[in-house]
Design a protein that fits this description.
This protein is mainly α. The protein has nine helices and two strands, in the order ααααααααββα. The termini are far apart.
């Protein structure tokens, strides 16, 4: 039996996987890995099979990324301001009050996201869980390595924020090692960019072909118009001669 066709858009499949209810993650991940294996995409199958089921706090953050894009953008911008203020403070170019102001803005930015998480979780929204969600959002937004996982909604672990003080650069550390997840996110991003480049190249070829056909049609119409104008001018000349005779 010939191998099945390759999974056409693995990045989209992974987005769908992390958007599912948490209880459906493992079954859907295993199904996707089996499909990839049957299609002889063994490397991708192994990567998918190794994906860990997100913690409840990480899953909640992933859903907020999908459902609250505006609020997430506000948090990311606030996190950038915190990082910038803390770096400038360490270099002696910003005061402690500037760092505190940036940190206060970052805390304000995360509050509506926590409120959205409370509504999303319903009865599961304990204070402890909401605090884990808050810490995960804030820490992931600040950490340049983890931030791509947050932005794509593919976090798997709680992230703990350490040192949100007014005079030291905020440091974040994961509850569990996350190097594999970061590497995987980058590989998935590269695959998505390659697929997008192929799609755009194909669309460009179609558009160029349509343009060439349109140009040829215009040339044909122009030649026809010139001929018709010449015939009309000749008829008009003959009419004038007939009338004057």
């Amino acid at each position: 039996m010939p191998p099945l066709a390759a999974v056409p858009d693995l990045d989209h499949e992974l987005d769908e996987l992390y958007a599912l209810p948490l209880e459906a993650f493992t079954r859907t991940r295993n199904d996707l890995a089996r499909r990839l294996k049957r299609a002889h995409q063994t490397e991708a199958a192994a990567e998918v099979q190794s994906l860990r089921k997100p913690s409840l706090a990480a899953w909640t953050a992933n859903q907020l990324v999908r459902n609250e894009q505006r609020l997430l953008g506000t948090l990311l911008a606030a996190a950038d301001e915190v990082r910038d203020a803390q770096v400038r403070a360490l270099e002696g170019r910003a005061s402690a009050s500037e760092v505190r102001e940036a940190t206060d803005g970052e805390r304000e930015a995360v509050r509506p996201l926590v409120s959205a998480a409370r509504q999303l979780l319903g009865e599961r929204a304990t204070p402890a869980l909401l605090e884990r969600v808050s810490q995960t959002l804030r820490a992931a937004a600040l950490d340049e390595d983890v931030r791509p996982l947050l932005e794509t909604g593919r976090l798997t672990e709680d992230i703990q924020a350490v040192g949100f003080g007014s005079s030291a650069l905020a440091a974040v550390q994961p509850v569990k090692p996350r190097r594999d997840e970061v590497k995987r996110a980058r590989q998935e991003r590269l695959r998505a960019l390659r697929a997008e480049a192929r799609r755009l190249a194909a669309e460009a070829e179609v558009a160029e072909h349509a343009l060439r056909e349109a140009e040829q049609a215009v040339e044909g119409l122009r030649a026809d118009a010139v001929q018709r104008r010449a015939a009309a001018d000749q008829a008009a000349e003959e009419l004038r001669e007939a009338e004057s005779g």
